[in-house]
Amino acid sequence: MASGTGSQIAIIRVGSLTLPNTTVMVGSFGGGWRWTNFVSESIEHTIEELEEGALTGNRDTPPSHQGASFGQGDVNFEPNPNAIGSWLYAATGVLSSQLVVDAGSTGGNSGNFAGQAGFTHYFVPRQTEHDESSFNEPHAVLVHKDVGSAWLFNAGPITALSFNFTAGQLGTSRATLMSKAVGLMGRTSFVTSLVSSGGRPWIWDSVSVEIGPNSGNLAAISDFESMELDLTVPHEGIVALNGEKGYAKFPSSDFRRLAVNGTLCFQTNSEYEQFVNYEPRHLRITARQSASSSQLIGNPSSAFYPTIQIDVPAFKMTSFSAPVGGPNRLVASFRGKGERADAYGLMVEYLLTNVTSGY
């Protein structure tokens, strides 16, 4: 009987909606494919039904025919610094990378990454479409479900990516994908050995929240108990008269949006007053694996750790509540959003530090 413990997941850039040859993709498992740890997935293969509507004097369900076939759903994982970059690039589309620690420069307390180079990667959402067939660059996602073959969700955009940091918990992420086609493909013997997650997840005690009028004037806020940032890039699957059952195009269907929701210990009215003022503020969330010296990248003086930093230069709260539910302490909850900040030319930016050279 199959179980989830034998499951694996990977993502790869395919560049266009022209379906790649699956034999070529199998041969590239050790190269472009990025494997990661994941918690669960709910990706569905859907075949739309075309039911005949002619009245024939019968009351039974009439015959049906196969309509559009596609894949769509979510992947939930505990993001680690090395693997998350592929999902970040798929959801944003613009990447620049920089070497910050030369290979071989690690010191005595950099155990897990001894001898490896360190990099910083800057991800920002694209402003122009990848090509005429898809706004975000098409990717393929492979899910092995421990029953021999792997499910290949081929050629489609990542339409949403969230990060959730909650006190007392590991960090979590959720990615939403669409795919033009779904198929089965066998795993090579080499792939069966790819069980490493590629890194360790972030933990709540490594997360800090800073807010201020701009990036040069931020102050740490220690009252937040949870924070979720959900980037959504709406796409619409379009079918065409092209002789294919799958989607022909994935154009953008709405504004890109960033939802920022969370909770905080309600001790003063300071955040409520900011909500009432409705003025944009710069929000920065930083998760850095600095609790263990074995996570250090480079020699001790360089002090680079596996880190993700998320900057929202124009953050606003849109709802705020601190209900009294009895004699217990009050916890405030809020909903908010990120807007485009003209001074920065963007709505959100992700900075990732790890030992992966590029995506």
3D architecture notes:
This protein has three helices and 20 strands. By secondary structure, the chain is mainly beta. A hairpin with a 5-residue loop joins strand 8 and strand 9. It is globular and about 70 Å long. The two termini are 36 Å apart.
The number of helical elements comes to: 3
What's the pLDDT, averaged over the residues? 85
Order of helices and strands: EHEEEEHEEEEEEEEEEEHEEEE
Principal-axis shape? globular
Distance between the termini: 36 Å
Rg, Å, rounded: 23 Å
Compose a concise summary of this entry.
The chain has three helices and 20 strands. The protein is mainly beta. The protein is globular.
Structural features:
359 residues, mainly beta, 15-stranded antiparallel β-sheet, 6% helix, globular
Write the layout of secondary structure elements.
Blueprint: E1 8-13, H1 22-27, E2 34-36, E3 40-41, E4 44-51, E5 64-77, H2 84-92, E6 93-101, E7 118-125, E8 139-144, E9 150-156, E10 158-166, E11 172-179, E12 181-185, E13 207-212, E14 219-220, E15 224-232, E16 257-265, H3 270-277, E17 281-288, E18 307-321, E19 331-338, E20 349-354
Antiparallel strand pairs: 1-2, 1-8, 3-5, 4-5, 5-11, 6-7, 7-20, 8-9, 9-12, 10-11, 10-15, 13-14, 13-17, 15-16, 16-19, 17-18, 18-19, 18-20
